[in-house]
Amino acid sequence: MKKALAIISILFLTFSSISAQKKLLSQINSLDTKETVNLKYNNKGQLVYFEEKGIVTFREFSFKYDKNSNKLSECNMNQDRGELVTNSKYHYNDGYITEEIVSSGKQVREKKVIDHIKIHIDNKNRLTKTVFDDGKPWEEFVYDENNNMIIYTQHSALTEGGSKIIKYKFNQDKSAFWAIEHIPAWFWAWHINSMRWCRDFIGQNNPNEFTTEDPKYGTDTIEVTYEYDHDGFPTKQYYNGKLVREFI
Questions:
Q1: pLDDT of amino acid 113
Q2: How far apart are CA 199 and CA 148, in angstroms?
Q3: Which of 64, 87, 152, 224 would be 74's cystine partner, CB 3.0–4.6 Å?
Q4: What are the average pLDDT values for consecutive 10-residue runs of the chain, which has 248 residues?
């Protein structure tokens, strides 16, 4: 009997340890922008769905993965319940990914629109840049060894517009996205402009400071602090002492 109880105890502790290491984020509540993001996963720990609820917008995303490589293969987006619907399929090449986008919905004048976009990545599958239609850089990304985005540059389409630069410093704590399986770093960076809530969590760690250099508004530095649970995952995020996000 004692031996059986000991085995059960060991199994419980092992399961608890695995659960702690693989804790999956289920909700992000952004108090400053009044947005809520709800996330769902399959039994492999892969993100298969999330929804964004804002004051005036609602978007749903669903994901599919290649059965052999586990690479992200497809993303479907539904904005405002049919206003805009997109289906993106990803084709992986050496140094870039081709995104084939089929758009439909009430906002699309034609019945169906198909676009092909090149996603520029490095040898670690991290987004390196986005470009304007003429091929000139729009956004540029620099990372550290933990895939944390340490420099983000956004160029103006106008020559005299200058460039906005954000520089990040990171701690060594686990990111809120740390346990999400097989969503590549390039995906969050690719959507950084329309998903501002994800820009702090592209890599493995959490930013503790970022400085924005804006040619229009000047330079501003934000100190970022956190509260953590007993497993070391962030539960609350503060900008200069003000609560901006909660994680569940």
A1: 87
A2: 10
A3: 64
A4: 43 40 87 95 95 95 96 97 96 96 91 91 96 94 97 89 94 94 90 89 95 96 98 97 98
What pLDDT, on the 0 to 100 scale, is given for residue 157? 87
Nearest to 181 by CA among 14, 22, 18: 22
How many Å apart are CA 130 and CA 166, to the nearest integer? Answer: 16
CB atoms near residue 227 (< 10 Å) = 12
Contact (CB, 8 A) for 126 and 139:
no
Residue 185 backbone phi and psi in degrees, to 5: -60, -30
Largest Cα–Cα distance in the chain? 79
Q: What gap in Å lies between CA 56 and CA 62, rounded to an integer?
A: 21
**How many helices and strands (H and E) does the chain possess?**
2, 16
Look at residue 113 and give its three-state secondary structure. Answer: strand
**What residues contact residue 54 under an 8 Å CB cut-off, 6+ apart?**
33, 34, 35
Domains of the chain: 25-247 (2.40.160)
Tokens of 20: 């702690």
The pTM of this model reads: 0.86
The helix (run of H) or strand (run of E) holding residue 238 is strand 234-239
- Predicted confidence at residue 52, as pLDDT, reads 97
Query: Backbone phi, then psi, for 243, in 5-degree steps?
Result: -65, 120
Are 227 and 236 in contact by the 8 Å Cβ rule? The answer is yes
Residue with tokens 């000139």: 136
